[in-house]
Specification:
Strand order of the largest sheet: 1-14-15-18
Number of helices: 11
Structural class: alpha+beta
Strand content: 15-25%
Distance between the termini: 40 Å
Shape: globular
Largest sheet: 4 strands, mixed
Helix content: 25-40%
Oligomer: single chain
Number of strands: 20
Bound molecules: 2-acetamido-2-deoxy-beta-D-glucopyranose, zinc ion
């Protein structure tokens, strides 16, 4: 167990701040192709404040708003500027005094924005809050995350969390309230980065451009909700993974002893396309199953909207439940067996699937599942979303090693994945 101090800190991050909570799992109905229909229920969004620490988030109401039309002074409200060469609006903050370095970092962000713009169809600009500063640890390169995840009902009538950057593209006439920025990015000016135009890359250097491109895809929704939330809360080794738990306390300053309402587990839109394949340890006859099947099982825990006297009671009841054993513990074990989690693109079959990272012998929150398999896609045209990128090579080197794909760094699998979620 971590100290009480740090547990309280973590709990606060997982909790609603408001009292009028309607259960997320019964929110409005719509599909991503028709209009989002507002209901009396106030959607609950997840806001992140630090891309380097996904634990730093709060759940809060994001009441439905009518879309502002024709406003081109306010980027967060659908500028609809059409296809410019860079649909990413950069709010760049440089914490370095070396202006040459700041300029290089800024132009790398701009280049990454142009590359992504050219690969997909964007209808609304995406605002990146980008920070380049010394993170006081040369091993840290940087990270990006959506600023806000919002619940939207997918075609299968299941609400899932979508990054705001994608929701904007759907151009709903009514949508959950937007945060002023779409993607949070933080990169380490203290890391040994190589920039376009520098001399030959050194063996220990990372190509800044590659890292930004990779991270921006996480910010655009390349991310599973499945993580070890409860183990993290207790500060113990990972024993189970679940979809995102929606917890609600009436306290604005919740402590260890506050009552909590639990209103279910929610997936990200990325999860909608994940299938779990049988491995040797499964009984014969086990069929591939969507991860959503397991999320449904998790949601048998409850009943939903039960109020628990405190976080310890909630956690111990979850960990003592049959769902913990059959889902959380089962899936964390699968997440350390190669080739068990796949992403099946929209309209595709298992033959079209992309293997996700489940090769790490110890489950690693953030590296496992939310990346493509390092073993499968090294030296292929889908190298970009592996959890580990080689130092000492430029993005051009990686493209050539991958077979000089005509689409550059954004491989065909990554395109299919992004087309599926967006
Ligand atoms: C926008 O894209 C269309 C095709 O998708 C193209 O014909 C048109 O020239 C583009 N406009 C600009 C301003 O880039
Ligand atoms: C500033 O950064 C540039 C580019 O990395 C580097 O070449 C230069 O030496 C730096 N200047 C100072 C004063 O550190
Ligand atoms: C919060 O307060 C409301 C209204 O008093 C109550 O219905 C709800 O159960 C409370 N939730 C928790 C988690 O205590
Ligand atoms: C799936 O793979 C088949 C065979 O390669 C291909 O024809 C089809 O277009 C793919 N579908 C998707 C959705 O990627
Ligand atoms: C890679 O492809 C481009 C065209 O897309 C070509 O101009 C270039 O020569 C190729 N490079 C190698 C090393 O094959
Ligand atoms: Zn990553």
């Amino acid at each position: 167990m971590k100290s009480l101090q740090s547990i309280i800190f973590l709990i606060r991050l997982l909790i609603f701040y408001h009292t009028t909570i309607t259960p997320i799992l019964t929110t409005s109905t719509s599909t991503s192709n028709s209009d989002f229909s507002p209901t009396a229920a106030v959607p609950q969004c997840i806001d992140y404040s630090d891309p380097l620490d996904f634990g730093k988030h709060i759940i809060k109401p994001c009441p439905n708003k009518a879309r502002l039309k024709g406003s081109n002074t306010n980027f967060q409200n659908d500028l609809s500027s059409g296809n410019s060469s860079n649909m990413f609006v950069l709010q760049f903050t440089c914490g370095e005094t070396n202006t040459t370095l700041c300029k290089k970092a800024k132009s790398a962000f701009e280049a990454a924005g142009k590359i992504i713009t050219a690969a997909f169809i964007f209808k609304a600009p995406i605002v990146i809050d980008a920070n380049f500063l010394d993170l006081n640890d040369p091993r840290l390169l940087g990270a990006a995350s959506p600023t806000r995840l919002m619940p939207i009902v997918s075609e299968d009538s299941v609400p899932r969390m979508y990054p705001q950057a994608l929701v904007k593209q759907f151009q709903y006439s009514v949508h959950p309230d937007y945060s002023p920025t779409d993607i949070l990015a933080k990169f380490n000016s203290g890391a040994d980065f190589w920039f376009q135009g520098d001399g030959p890359i050194g063996p220990q250097q990372s190509n800044f451009h590659t890292v930004i491109l990779h991270e921006l895809f996480h910010g655009l929704g390349f991310s599973s909700s499945y993580r070890d939330y409860f183990d993290l809360l207790l500060g113990q080794p990972s024993e189970g993974i679940t979809a995102f738990p929606m917890l609600d306390s009436n306290s604005t300053n919740p402590t260890f002893n506050d009552p909590l309402k639990f209103s279910g587990f929610i997936e990200t839109i990325f999860d909608k396309f994940i299938m779990i394949l049988p491995d040797k340890s499964d009984p014969s006859g086990t069929k591939p199953l969507p991860i959503s099947y397991f999320t449904n099982q998790l949601n048998q825990f409850g009943p939903l909207n039960t109020i628990f006297p405190n976080i310890n009671v909630l956690t111990s009841q979850i960990m003592g439940s049959p769902q913990w054993k059959s889902v959380a513990q089962y899936l964390i074990k699968k997440a350390t067996v190669a080739n068990t989690f796949v992403f099946v693109p929209r309209g595709g079959t298992l033959a079209n699937a992309t293997y996700l990272e489940t090769n790490l012998k110890v489950y690693s929150s953030g590296s496992s599942i939310s990346h493509v398999s390092l073993a499968k896609y090294t030296n292929t045209n889908d190298f970009l979303m592996r959890y580990s990128l080689e130092s000492g090579v430029t993005i051009e080197d990686l493209i050539i090693k991958g077979g000089n794909y005509s689409g550059g760094a954004i491989g065909p699998r990554l395109r299919a994945i992004m087309n599926s979620i967006g």
